[in-house]
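Design job #97: recover the sequence.
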């Protein structure tokens, strides 16, 4: 079994590319995942390279940005390639099978949504309409 589940923050904006020929979308990014323990009172993190393919890659690139929290489930994959200097390089990365956006949008969008939810009231409570607009209904008019 090869299964990985991570929750962390993007270290920079995802990089979106398309494969030559088929044009399949592929996004790559690094996820900073906090460790469960602290060293000398400081939180430590691991920086995990992630690759996601297809529509999920496009959505990730379009809606996620540096610092946003996201969940990833997938598998660990290792590969190697020959670098330009002739040396053999080895890469270990997570190939995402599922991504979840746990935070998205800008802080301006979030505050605008909160303003709409709060209906412009400073203390956050919803303003009710005036009673003058309410028409009483006779129970006999209800068809059930």
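Job complete. Output follows.
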């Amino acid at each position: 079994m090869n299964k990985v589940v991570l929750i962390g923050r993007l270290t920079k904006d995802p990089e979106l590319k398309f494969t030559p020929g088929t044009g399949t979308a592929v996004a790559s990014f690094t996820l900073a995942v906090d460790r469960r323990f602290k060293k000398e009172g400081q939180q430590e993190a691991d920086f995990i390279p992630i690759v996601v393919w297809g529509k999920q890659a496009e959505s990730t690139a379009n809606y996620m940005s540096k610092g946003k929290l996201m969940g990833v489930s997938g598998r660990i994959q290792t590969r190697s390639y020959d670098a330009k200097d002739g040396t053999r390089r080895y890469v270990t990365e997570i190939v995402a099978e599922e991504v979840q956006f746990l935070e998205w949008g800008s802080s301006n969008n979030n505050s605008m949504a909160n303003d709409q939810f709060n209906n412009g009231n400073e203390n956050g409570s919803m303003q009710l309409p005036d009673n003058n607009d309410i028409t009483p209904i006779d129970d006999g008019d209800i068809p059930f």
